[in-house]
Amino acid sequence: MSKATPSTKVSENGLRYAAKVSGSPFTGTGHTRSCFLCGRHRQAAQLKSKRVLGRAEMVCAPSCNSVE
Q1: Residues in Cβ contact with 28 at an 8 Å cutoff, skipping those fewer than 6 apart
Q2: pLDDT at residue 27 greater than cutoff 90
Q3: Which residues contact 54 (CB under 8 A, 6 or more apart)?
Q4: Nearest CA to 32 among 44, 50, 45?
Q5: Is residue 7 included in any domain, yes or no?
Q6: Using CA atoms, how far apart are residues 10 and 27, in angstroms rounded to an integer?
């Protein structure tokens, strides 16, 4: 897979915006949550509840490194 280089366009007020693909990076049903430890968005089935600093937080199951 080769990524296309984003083209930029300078607007009249001098700001530069990078062209990007339309749509959302969160595909599927939209029921995603972020892992408390790594911050990546996962489906609910890929997360588990874990006590972190006295609170129940959602983290990757079984670990952040094993989920791709």
Answers
A1: 43
A2: no
A3: none
A4: 44
A5: no
A6: 30
**Tally of structural domains, the chain:** 1
Alpha-carbon distance of 53 to 14, in angstroms, equals 46
Domain-located, residue 4: no
| CA–CA distance, 6 with 21 (Å, rounded to integer) | 9
Tell the burial category of 60 from Cβ atoms under 10 Å away from its Cβ (0-12, 13-18, 19+). Answer: buried
Whether 47 maps to a domain, the answer reads yes
Residues of the domain holding 37: 30-68
pLDDT tens per residue across span 33-64: 899 999 888 888 889 999 988 999 999 988 88
